[in-house]
């Protein structure tokens, strides 16, 4: 089966959760002998490290000012930004030559550029339409854009021959939008690649530390402040909280952090964005992995990653969305409020709470297992 997939970021060096998911989908589809071609249409300001091939379909420099206009949303208005641009016709010409059996959209934002051709073009109208959703996007968007996002997302979900959701909750929403008799959405949760637990990298930090990993997605900062408070002074003496990823900028630039800058310097190690090697070393040496997720949709790759490392995991309950069965596993400690979260984290850091999860137990959270329903359904979408 030949699948042409479109998204709004490159995956050459996947860093955030969306990139990791798309890269894993591509890898698993190809491992199943599908011809999977992913085409990113994206801003080089937001993603300067695309591969040479990926940069061929990046948005032109002339359009970037409009794309990043603060009065618009980069993702929601991407198709409007590109309307009439020569890149669109080039993408369509390439798609016609590729002659896909199916066209897949990661997120709904690029669909309007292709909708007419997929419905009417003699070379493309036979291709099946697949929507690979990462969230119920309209639920997460700023209220002023919500109706517009909902209309776009709902149109794609309604028309798609196959819809893939990351959680049963999201699938329930999408199925409610679809016509009676349409095949139900399938659920393929987020996962991660199994870690090399036999490796022994050098410790990136001295002393005991709890680890938080997060992108610059604003809900990550919300979860941090709600879960840890202005100063994580509840940690046991000599231990620290290490923060890796783009969320560092959201935390350190906040007045709440700066107000107690000296004390936060004692309790918090702000590491910024780190490469895969450093992240693996942090996960290897962390005493506890924290999931201070208090809002959002879909499922979180960070949760699957934390479970597979077999360390004690301290999580706010929303972090287990889509992984609810993991609460019964050894070493998974779930809090319903910030006070409970802090108590669990302190007890895990002192060794009172431990983890005895096994590799066999956590294999279900690897990408091959999590994406299996999606890969299996690819063939049947043609029938």
Automatic annotation (TrEMBL):
Which Gene3D superfamilies does this entry report, sorted A to Z? Glycogen Phosphorylase B
Which key words tag this protein in UniProt?
Transferase
Q: Which domain of life is it from?
A: Bacteria
Q: Where is the Glycosyltransferase subfamily 4-like N-terminal domain?
A: 17-191
The record's section on InterPro entries has: Glyco_trans_4-like_N
Q: Does the keyword Nucleotide-binding apply?
A: no
SUPFAM superfamilies named in the record: UDP-Glycosyltransferase/glycogen phosphorylase
Q: Does the keyword Plastid apply?
A: no
Q: What is this protein called?
A: Glycosyltransferase subfamily 4-like N-terminal domain-containing protein
């Amino acid at each position: 089966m030949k699948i042409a997939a479109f998204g709004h970021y490159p995956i050459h060096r996947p860093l955030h959760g969306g990139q990791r998911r798309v890269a894993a989908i591509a890898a698993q589809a190809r491992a199943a002998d599908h011809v999977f071609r992913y085409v990113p249409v994206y801003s080089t300001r937001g993603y300067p490290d695309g591969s040479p091939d990926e940069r061929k379909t990046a948005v032109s420099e002339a359009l970037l000012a409009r794309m990043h206009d603060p009065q618009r949303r980069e993702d929601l208005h991407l198709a409007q930004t590109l309307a009439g641009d020569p890149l669109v016709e080039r993408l369509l010409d390439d798609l016609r030559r590729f002659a896909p059996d199916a066209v897949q959209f990661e997120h709904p934002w690029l669909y309007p550029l292709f909708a007419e051709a997929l419905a009417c073009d003699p070379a493309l109208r036979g291709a099946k339409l697949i929507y690979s959703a990462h969230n119920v996007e309209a639920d997460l968007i700023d209220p002023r854009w919500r109706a517009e996002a909902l209309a776009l997302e709902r149109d794609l979900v309604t028309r798609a021959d196959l819809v893939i959701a990351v959680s049963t909750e999201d699938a329930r929403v999408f199925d409610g939008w679809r016509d009676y008799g349409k095949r139900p959405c399938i659920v393929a949760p987020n996962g991660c690649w199994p870690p090399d637990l036999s490796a022994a990298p050098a410790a990136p930090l001295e002393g005991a530390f709890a680890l938080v990993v997060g992108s610059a997605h604003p809900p990550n900062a919300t979860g941090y402040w709600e879960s840890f408070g202005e100063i994580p002074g509840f940690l046991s003496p000599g231990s620290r909280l290490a923060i890796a990823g783009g969320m560092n900028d959201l935390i350190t630039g906040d007045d709440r952090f700066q107000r107690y800058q000296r004390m936060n310097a004692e309790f918090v190690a702000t590491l910024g964005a780190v490469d895969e090697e450093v992240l693996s070393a942090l996960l290897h040496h962390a005493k506890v992995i924290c999931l201070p997720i208090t809002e959002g949709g879909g499922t979180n790759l960070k949760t699957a990653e934390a479970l597979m490392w077999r360390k004690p995991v301290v999580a706010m309950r929303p972090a287990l969305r889509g992984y609810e069965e993991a609460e019964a596993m050894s070493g998974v400690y779930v809090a319903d409020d910030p006070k409970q979260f802090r108590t669990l984290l302190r007890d895990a850091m002192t060794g009172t709470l431990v983890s005895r999860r096994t590799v066999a137990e956590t294999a279900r959270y690897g990408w091959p297992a999590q994406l299996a329903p999606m890969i299996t359904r690819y063939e049947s979408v043609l029938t």
